[in-house]
Design goal:
Layout (H helix, E strand, L loop, with lengths): L2 H23 L2 H8 L3 H28 L6 H17 L5 H14 L2 H29 L8 H25 L3 H17 L5 H26 L5 H15 L10 H12 L4 H18 L1 H9 L17 H7 L5
Helix pairs in contact: 1-11, 2-12, 3-4, 3-6, 3-8, 3-9, 3-12, 4-5, 4-13, 5-6, 6-8, 6-9, 6-10, 7-8, 8-14, 9-10, 9-12, 10-11, 11-12
Length: 326
């Protein structure tokens, strides 16, 4: 499947979900959700967005340093804001992250390594988010609680099987694929799981998830949702997980579909869930607007290319990763 076709399929998937929601629930909840946005919710969303952006940028800088490339925190914060804005403004929801990886790679002279830093930073954040979601959904009484033992067992089984398959494949295969697997293993070891890295990556990821969930609470309050705190936390985490699925239109699609389904399953009505998700989406988009300013300010900044600056990189990282190309 070509890259263009893949983007088109993801866009059509997100549009299809939104179309089904309008067909089943109507356009009213979307309009209600937009009307629920007020000055206080925008201010709170902006503050929470700043917190999550700084923590995500910190996580990125930690992973990048573990991979042997320099990334100052102010630079990471500005690039993260810009990426978030592009993620919401462009289809697919991931193009902003690709842009920040490429731009960082051009600045440091190693695009491949910089892109890998973004991939592993995002992967670490998603992994922590899944763990938090499983823990909360297992502990909080909700319509979804009974399914969590099966979900947990399935997740553990999939991870174990995948790890075994990759281990065996890496030992038996040769050539380019074997090299890529060795690079990935070294990236995870030194970029994410290093002794001085993983606690900070974990803390940053927990704060990011908490900040996004708090923004969902702000949206629910603004939209007048009647869910209790525990149930709303469970629904928020489900919606956040759905929002990470790249089949969307500027972030819209699966998130709204799951929110509508979850509210309906809890007996609160799909329309209310869709209104809350719409308010949340509007607040998130507003919170990314500083990224537009970063994009405008840096638009004419000359791109620096040259050898990567590597402050005391881990020897094994350099030996395995090297100046990777691709």
């Amino acid at each position: 499947m070509s890259r263009t076709l893949g983007v088109a399929v993801r866009l059509l998937g997100g549009a299809a979900i939104l179309g089904c929601l309008v067909w089943r629930v109507g356009a009213g909840p979307f309009l209600d959700g937009l009307r629920a946005v007020d000055a206080w919710s925008l201010i709170l969303a902006g503050l929470l967005g700043a917190l999550t952006t700084v923590c995500a940028a910190w996580r990125w800088a930690i992973v990048a340093r573990g991979l042997g490339i320099t990334l100052r925190l102010p630079q990471a914060i500005a690039a993260s804001y810009r990426a978030q804005f592009l993620n919401t403004a462009l289809p697919g929801g991931v193009l902003g992250d690709v842009h920040r990886g490429v731009r960082h790679g051009q600045d440091t002279g190693d695009v491949a390594r910089a892109l890998r830093a973004v991939v592993w930073e995002r992967t670490a954040g998603q992994f922590v988010q899944v763990l938090i979601a499983i823990a909360i959904l297992s502990a909080v009484p909700s319509p979804f609680q009974h399914a969590m033992p099966v979900v947990l067992a399935s997740a553990i089984g999939i991870c174990v099987i995948l790890a075994l398959v990759l281990h065996v494949y890496a030992r038996k295969t040769t050539g380019r694929m074997a090299r890529l697997l060795r690079i990935a293993a070294a990236d995870v070891r030194f970029g994410v799981l290093a002794r001085d890295a993983w606690p900070r990556v974990a803390v940053a990821s927990v704060i990011v998830v908490a900040g996004h969930a708090a923004t969902f609470f702000v949206a629910a309050h603004a939209a007048g949702a009647n869910a209790g705190t525990g149930l709303l936390a469970a629904i928020a985490l489900l919606a956040l997980l759905a929002g990470s699925v790249p089949t969307n239109v500027g972030g819209w699609g699966p998130r709204e579909g799951v929110a509508a389904w979850a509210f309906a399953a809890a007996g609160l009505g799909a329309a209310q869930g869709l209104a809350v998700a719409t308010t949340y989406g509007a607040l998130v988009m507003a919170a990314t607007l500083p990224g537009m300013l970063v994009l405008i300010i840096n638009r004419r900044r000359p791109t620096r290319t040259g050898p990567a600056q590597q402050p005391e990189p881990a020897p094994a990282t350099v030996a395995v990763g090297g100046p990777a190309r691709g």
